[in-house]
């Protein structure tokens, strides 16, 4: 009886462990090693294919920033309202430098140039000190509104043009150059009212000439000559 009990042994594992199997193959013939390597390579290729297939879903979403864009086609010289602009979210790498983000930044400001619907608005799209500085190429620059005596002249002007501001002189058929080399920033939209008032034009001038031109424009009709 005791001998029979000694003969009873634990059943061996149904199969060798994976490590033992791999070791046996490596110790075996060369063709078995080749088969194993091929199977490992095939498994790696399957894993790589799965990773590539899942890559779009695993990619990190790009950072986005709010950007203020024109909500409709806007003419130059228009006074912006909140309903003229829309906030959109753009990828951070596509956002222009000095882009505006809040409708409050443009409310009541003059749009220097025409803007298409969906076009982003930056500080240089608005009439102001930064635009005047860049247009005139000097920090010592001011924006001066002048009302032209001849409204038809205003229709010839475009932002960026260089003009001379002139007024009638004391002698008949004589003129006085109030400022030379003024840069047109924008031409304001035509106003409702008497046509003889003319249209307002915003120009960039050196500060030394800005006050003189502004004062003269209040006292007498002025116009510009194109260069």
Task: Describe the secondary-structure layout.
Layout: H1 2-7, H2 18-27, H3 30-58, E1 64-70, E2 85-91, H4 129-136, E3 141-147, H5 151-154, E4 162-168, E5 175-187, E6 200-206, H6 207-219, E7 222-226
Antiparallel strand pairs: 1-2, 3-6, 4-5, 4-7, 5-6
Helix pairs in contact: 2-3
Features:
single chain; about 230 residues; alpha+beta; Type Iii Antifreeze Protein Isoform Hplc 12; 3 domains; 5-stranded antiparallel sheet; about 30% helix; about 25% strand
Q: Summarize this, please?
A:
The chain is 31% helix and 23% strand.
Q: What does this entry look like structurally?
A:
The chain has 227 residues and is α+β, with helices and mostly antiparallel strands. It has three domains: 17-58; 60-126, Type Iii Antifreeze Protein Isoform Hplc 12, CATH 3.90.1210.10; 137-227, no CATH class. Helices cover 31% and strands 23% of the residues. The chain is built from six helices and seven strands; from the N terminus they run H-H-H-E-E-H-E-H-E-E-E-H-E. Helix 2 (18-27) packs across helix 3. The longest helix is centred in the first third of the chain and has 29 residues, at 30-58.
> In terms of structural class, how would the helical and strand content be classed?
alpha+beta
Total number of helices: 6
SSE series: HHHEEHEHEEEHE
Strand elements, count:
7
| Cα distance spanning the termini | 125 Å
Q: Helix fraction? A: 25-40%
* Main sheet strand line-up: 3-6-5-4-7
């Amino acid at each position: 009886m005791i001998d029979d009990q000694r003969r009873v042994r634990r059943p061996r594992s149904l199969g060798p462990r994976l490590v033992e199997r791999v070791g046996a193959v490596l110790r075996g013939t060369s063709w078995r090693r080749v088969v194993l390597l091929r199977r490992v390579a095939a498994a790696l290729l399957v894993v790589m294919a799965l990773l590539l297939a899942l890559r779009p879903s695993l990619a990190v979403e790009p950072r986005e920033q709010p950007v203020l864009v024109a909500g409709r086609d806007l003419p130059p010289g228009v006074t912006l309202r909140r309903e003229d602009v829309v906030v959109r979210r753009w990828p951070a790498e596509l956002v222009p430098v000095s882009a505006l983000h809040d409708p409050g930044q443009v409310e009541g400001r003059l749009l220097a140039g025409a803007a298409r619907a969906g076009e982003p608005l930056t500080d240089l799209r608005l009439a102001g000190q930064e635009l005047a500085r860049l247009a005139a190429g000097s920090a010592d620059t001011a924006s001066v509104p002048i009302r032209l005596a001849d409204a038809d002249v205003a229709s010839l002007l475009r932002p960026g043009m260089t003009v001379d501001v002139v007024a009638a002189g004391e002698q008949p058929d004589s003129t006085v150059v109030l400022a030379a080399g003024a840069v047109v920033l924008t031409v304001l939209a035509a106003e409702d009212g008497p046509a003889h008032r003319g249209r307002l034009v915003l120009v960039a001038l050196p500060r030394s000439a800005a006050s003189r031109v502004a004062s003269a424009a209040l006292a007498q009709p002025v116009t510009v000559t194109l260069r």
